[in-house]
Amino acid sequence: MCGIVGYAGSGKALEFVLSGLAKLEYRGYDSAGIALCQNGSVEITKYAGRLSRLLDAVSSSPSASTTAVGHTRWATHGRPTDINAHPHTDSSSKFAVVHNGIIENYTALGAWLRERGHKFVSDTDTEVIPHLIAEFYEGDLVAAVRKAVEKLRGSYALAIVSSFEPETIIGVRKDSPLIVGLGNGENYLASDIPAVMAHTRKIYVLEDDEMAVIRKDGVEVTSVAGTSVLKDVFEIKWDPVQAERGGYPHFMLKEIHEQPKAIRDTLSGRISEDGKSVVLDEISLPKQKIRELAKMSIVACGTAYHAGMVTKYLIERLARIPVEVDVASEFRYRDPIVAEGDLVLVISQSGETSDTLAALREAKRRGAHIIAITNVVGSSVSREAHDVIYTWAGPEIAVASTKAYTTQLVAGTLLAVYLAHIRAQITQEEVSSLVSALLGLPEKAKEALLLEADTKQAADYLVNWNDAFFIGRGLDYMLGLEGQLKLKEISYIHAEGYAAGELKHGTLALITEGVPVIALATQPALMEKMLSNIAEVNARGGHVIAVSMGEHEELSNGAKSVISVPQTHPYVAPVLCVIPLQLIAYYAAVQKGADVDKPRNLAKSVTVE
Description:
CATH class of the largest domain: Alpha Beta
Strand content: 15-25%
Structural class: alpha/beta
């Protein structure tokens, strides 16, 4: 999730782009750069690190440029370095591109372009784009961009400038946001509204496969294929702070709604072209070693630990490898049994969690092969692990993790299917079924987000109680642990998650008249058992709120209310069913007047032991 800014007008291009990047720095902050069309060329300045480095470098050099594009980066392909920072150019530096998204087929495109004499300097997927444009350029920039885009597979928002047409910016969108700001004698391009608000309140919102040709005297929008598109003008009525959050009242709610895209990005490039298998080129462990694995360990903290529990379940069920899951802060203090060649998976959103890093280093010292699931390219975990599966969720601003968790689940599921397939523990039919379910998650997550009315109703009930309980079996038990954590960390309602079969072993003593119990029932094989547990709660007067998939008459009869997400494969159900749990926690916190994005006593990344 990077930030893009562009300006085409009569002057002040540098000033506008720098100001816009500052407004979008929440979208990425590991490098920044700018391309200025001036003096007959495209002049590039870019640096790794915060935007302030770029500001310091260009502020002392006034510019008369009237056309420019800028970028603030959240790294996906290639570590945060000066060379990997955007904009990227072709070998002649006649074309410059900034990009938000992931080009899935960049390896194949790069090989084809190298055969044709193109030379690359970065480690990014983006660099193939200006080279493609240069390859196809025959005097018409728009035509060259169209031909280049036809070759791309993946997600992208692009801003393109060229010294051949120095008063033109071309913007293209597919799956990544892009807006056009409409001014008087100047027009703008940006990833998000905050970048343009100080200059205009009138925008076009580009849709997938649309292209905007932006000049100072007008904007032309077409399909990528060239068909003219008549756009409605959207008038911004948000205040500046709300605009940073995309119109949402809190970053947490914005990030909950970003989950369909985050899931899609995590899957990107990791499913074979025929849609029947998992591709994890990130894993360097030889296949024979995978077949010989006798055990593995997973270490993580907090929400990532809950994702680790789900991953353990799936790896054991699918790949038939015994798996231990440890809270990272406990792992190294119990003298863990980790031998040379064992596989250890570490999970961390930030890649800087102190306890997780310490566990990684201890396992590595003992000779383990380390695979990391993390969201931050260039983080300590990503540098020190042998292999890294990036979740590509983009920056997560709210302290309470949402999209990071769902993408960790997706990454863990991909790993489980990959290991199982190599070990021949599941059939091709089972692999295809799971891959199909994974590919369906982005659209079904959108459907799950439509359950806000039901989740608000559940939150209305919860806020009148000091305690709440989450129960489930199998994957639903692990999901309940994440649900209870979300509720208590932002609404400050005490909550506990239990394996439903343990109710009779003590927990029933806490179930009294009216006490809220969130019952998770997404696993068909365990539905009868869950119905019995719900009956036990009802017999003590508990108020049952059920979360399930599809419609279940018996469940409706046993619960006060049922929140139903779309049907999917039971093994990926937690990805969908956590969404209503996140929304319940969010609306409960809002009703209680809590600081949703910055809950008391908590920090986003725990970098001390």
